């Protein structure tokens, strides 16, 4: 690990004022600290967001759930408000990693990191979330731009995420048994005739599955999802699964998510 300057600001304003040169924000540290140990990342400054209280909250804002960027996965999973309004989101948070990861990792850190197998990006796309930063609001459809890449500009800080409440929704994933990352994960949300389907783990970045959305918007039923043959073009190919197998898993996980949403 290379040498760096460490900061613990007490406000968002103080944190963003420190974001210069090669500085990096530290949220839960589940990915960044490991990258630093391997010398894959060498920030000049580390800006710890852990003491900024204004970044940790959960509230219902006009039918949407707004979550502060530093809210831990375990808090999302156990929130009574989220369980009541968007239970699928609470269920997804409860599937992330192990107990230690859920108590350290944050929703803002996960979205900013944009790991291709992370769970929250599927929910953000499936629910049509809005990511709020210190500078602007970004639609989830425009936020994830590529492998570990997002629309965030240098020094821009996620402050909260807003998830519209659907009529019904569910998340299903085929997980790696060791890491519990998604080999393929699918978040399905029905907004009353308009269905969104967010997929993670299958490609270089999370994406929406247009064919599934069209089929399920016409008929929200497991057989409608099962009838869609997903193409393998552009899907990940690694030691865990081939593109063809991932394409198959998208259909299977979508079908299971619809079944779960209908219960």
How would you explain this protein's 3D organization?
By secondary structure, the chain is α+β, with helices and mostly antiparallel strands. It folds into 2 domains: 5-48, Uridine Diphospho-n-acetylenolpyruvylglucosamine Reductase, domain 2, CATH 3.30.43.10; 55-262, Uridine Diphospho-n-acetylenolpyruvylglucosamine Reductase, domain 3, CATH 3.30.465.10. Helices cover 35% and strands 24% of the residues. It has 12 helices and 14 strands. The strands form 4 sheets. Strands 4-5-10-6-7 form a 5-stranded antiparallel β-sheet. Strands 11-12-13-14 form a 4-stranded antiparallel β-sheet, with helices on both faces. Strands 1-3-2 form a 3-stranded parallel β-sheet, with no helix packed on it. A hairpin with a 4-residue loop joins strand 12 and strand 13. The protein is globular, with a radius of gyration of 18 Å.
Contiguous uncertain segments of 5+ residues: none
Question: Which geometry do the CA atoms define?
Answer: globular
Secondary structural class: alpha+beta
Domain module count: 2
Task: Give me the secondary-structure topology.
Elements: E1 5-7, H1 12-17, E2 24-26, H2 32-37, E3 45-48, E4 58-61, E5 64-68, H3 73-78, H4 80-85, H5 87-95, H6 99-104, H7 107-113, H8 120-127, E6 130-133, E7 137-139, H9 140-143, E8 144-146, E9 149-150, E10 158-164, E11 168-175, E12 182-190, E13 195-200, E14 207-208, H10 210-218, H11 222-226, H12 243-262
Parallel strand pairs: 1-3, 2-3
Antiparallel strand pairs: 4-5, 5-10, 6-7, 6-10, 8-9, 11-12, 12-13, 13-14
């Amino acid at each position: 690990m290379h040498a760096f300057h460490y900061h613990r600001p007490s406000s968002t304003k103080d944190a963003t004022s420190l974001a210069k040169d090669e500085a990096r924000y530290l949220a839960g540290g589940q990915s960044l600290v490991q990258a630093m140990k391997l010398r894959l990342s060498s920030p000049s400054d580390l800006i710890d967001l852990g003491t900024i209280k204004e970044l940790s909250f959960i509230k219902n804002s006009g039918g949407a759930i707004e979550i502060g960027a530093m809210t831990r996965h375990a808090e999302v999973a156990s929130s009574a408000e989220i369980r009541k309004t968007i239970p699928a989101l609470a269920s997804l948070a409860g599937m992330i990693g192990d107990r230690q990861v859920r108590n350290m990792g944050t929703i803002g850190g996960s979205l900013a990191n944009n790991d291709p197998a992370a769970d929250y990006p599927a929910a953000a796309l499936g629910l049509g979330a809005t990511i709020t930063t210190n500078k602007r609001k970004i639609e989830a459809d425009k936020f994830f731009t590529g492998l570990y890449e997002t629309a965030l500009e240098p020094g821009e800080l996620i402050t909260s995420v807003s998830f519209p409440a659907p009529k019904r929704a569910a998340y299903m994933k085929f997980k790696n048994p060791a890491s519990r990352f998604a080999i393929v994960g699918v978040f399905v949300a029905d907004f009353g005739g308009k269905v969104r389907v967010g997929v993670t783990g299958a490609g270089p970045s999370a994406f929406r599955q247009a064919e599934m959305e069209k089929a399920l918007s016409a008929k929200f039923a497991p057989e409608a999802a099962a009838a869609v043959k997903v193409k393998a073009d552009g899907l990940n190919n690694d030691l865990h699964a081939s593109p063809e197998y991932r394409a198959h898993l998208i259909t299977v996980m979508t079908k299971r998510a619809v079944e779960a949403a209908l219960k």
